[in-house]
Amino acid sequence: MLILPIVNKRRVMNVEVRLKNASKIRSRVFYEDAKESDIIVNREKFSESSFRDSKEENAPTDFIRSKSILYPRNFLVTTKQENNSHFYDVYEVKQPPKKVNTSLDKLYGKAITDLRKEIPGVKQRGRYVSFEDLGIKDHLTDEKIAHLQKIVREEKNSALWPQLFQKAGIADLSDTIDFMNHFECTVLSDHSIPEDSLQDTLRAMEAINTRDYRHLKKYYEMAKSNARIYTTISYIHKIIYDQPLTLIQSQSQRQKQFIKKKDENEHSQVA
């Protein structure tokens, strides 16, 4: 389970990050020609590729793209085997979005690896996501955002923006928004704490400087950093679309969105 710690409205929240276009298509299966914890793209296997020994977080993304050049189809990801069993689950995943930068490819790779490390029937161990450690903020500079604002302010025809963004060398800002929309970010209910309470705990533990203190401090710093970078991404989204970014949602918001989409689909079928 990928967890994005983030500060919002004086609370420190934990947000689950998943790929939007990944769906489980098989449960408790075992195939002779498919290993556990693998990626299969056009019959090519990650476990048998030159990418398998790489420690880079974007290695799964690079593998998927390299094996999809000629035939960009959906691909498969197998989980780990069940405890005391050969059975595993299988996910089908749509093609990744086009490459924007290595930082975002690392985030996508982490999401694929998260599926590969899933053990059916076992509560997943949380793995933190730090936008800063991934290097995402390095591409969202004030200079680029200033150029973006200038173009949007001066050119009223939004159909011309992509060309102008490309010419100004800032197309990656809008591409970042498109890339991030391939993820589903859901706030874990009952897993948030008041920021004041966390700060009080850190102050009380600071003098003893234990490992627990250092881990908690690192977690809080990560949550604050993620909030700053998410705010920047939200600001870019607001400039381009004149709407707030709704990437992170509560479980109730996600359910309402699902019901609305289902109703719209049923309505279009009837029509």
Summarize the structure.
The chain is an alpha+beta fold and 271 residues long.
Set out the fold topology.
Blueprint: E1 2-8, E2 11-19, E3 22-29, E4 39-41, E5 44-45, H1 59-66, E6 75-78, E7 88-93, H2 102-116, E8 127-128, H3 131-134, H4 142-154, H5 161-168, H6 171-180, E9 183-187, E10 193-194, H7 195-205, H8 211-241, E11 248-249, H9 251-270
Would you kindly provide a written description of the structure presented here, covering whatever features stand out?
With about 270 residues, the protein is α+β, with helices and mostly antiparallel strands. It has 9 helices and 11 strands. It has helices at about 60-65, 100-115, 130-135, 140-155, 160-170, 170-180, 195-205, 210-240, 250-270; strands at about 1-10, 10-20, 20-30, 40, 45, 75-80, 90-95, 125-130, 185, 195, 250. Strands 1, 2, 8, 9, 10 and 11 form a 6-stranded mixed sheet that branches. Strands 3-7-6-4-5 form a 5-stranded antiparallel sheet, covered by helices on one side. A hairpin with a 2-residue loop joins strand 1 (about 1-10) and strand 2. Helix 1 (about 60-65) crosses helix 2 (about 100-115), helix 4 (about 140-155) runs antiparallel to helix 5 and helix 6 (about 170-180) packs across helix 8. The model has no long low-confidence stretch (mean pLDDT about 95).
Structural class, please? alpha+beta
- Give start-end ranges of low-pLDDT stretches: none
- DSSP strand tally: 11
Helical run tally:
9
Report the end-to-end length measured between terminal Cα atoms.
Answer: 40 Å
Order of helices and strands: EEEEEHEEHEHHHHEEHHEH
